[in-house]
Amino acid sequence: MRPAIDVQLKETINLKGPTDGTYRFRLKNRNYKLLQGEKYRTPRLLVVLHMPRDKSQWITIVNDGLTLRRCAYWLNLREFDELDENADDDKYTLVHIPQENRFDDVSLRRLMDQARTGRIE
């Protein structure tokens, strides 16, 4: 099997938290709806990259590597409550991303292993 995940990457310099073990992120309702629900065969994840305020520190590219500063965190909205279909797509929903959901090489391998079964937890 060839596991797959779809990722919607968002970046911010204003990631709220952590409070009570979660980061708070305002996600547009339109994006929430696209990531939410069990209607997609391939798991869809929100990945939020927390970037430094100084733009010159965001990314470094050299011949043998690419470095993004700070951390990224992932969230699976599959089992979250659906938004009201009349919810304004241009409005926002506050999502809580567990601090332990750090998006790194270890978690990516685990997520891909879980994607083989079709269930990401």
**Alpha-beta classification:** mainly beta
Name the beta content range.
Answer: 35-45%
Give the integer mean of the pLDDT values: 88
Strand order of the largest sheet: 1-4-7
Whole-Å distance between the termini? 19 Å
Helix content: 10-25%
* Rg result: 15 Å
Number of strands: 8
**Topology as a string of helices (H) and strands (E):** EEEHEEEEEH
Number of helices: 2
Unreliable runs: none
Question: How many strands, which pairing sense, and closed or not: the largest β-sheet?
Answer: 3 strands, mixed
Which overall shape is indicated by the principal axes computed on the Cα atoms?
globular
Task: Write up this protein.
By secondary structure, this protein is mainly beta. Helices cover 15% and strands 38% of the residues. The strands form 3 sheets. Strands 1-4-7 form a 3-stranded mixed β-sheet, with no helix packed on it. Strands 2-3-8 form a 3-stranded antiparallel β-sheet. The chain contains 2 helices and 8 strands; from the N terminus they run βββαβββββα.
Key structural traits:
121 residues, mainly beta
Quick description:
The protein is mainly beta and 121 residues long. Helix content is 15%, strand content 38%.
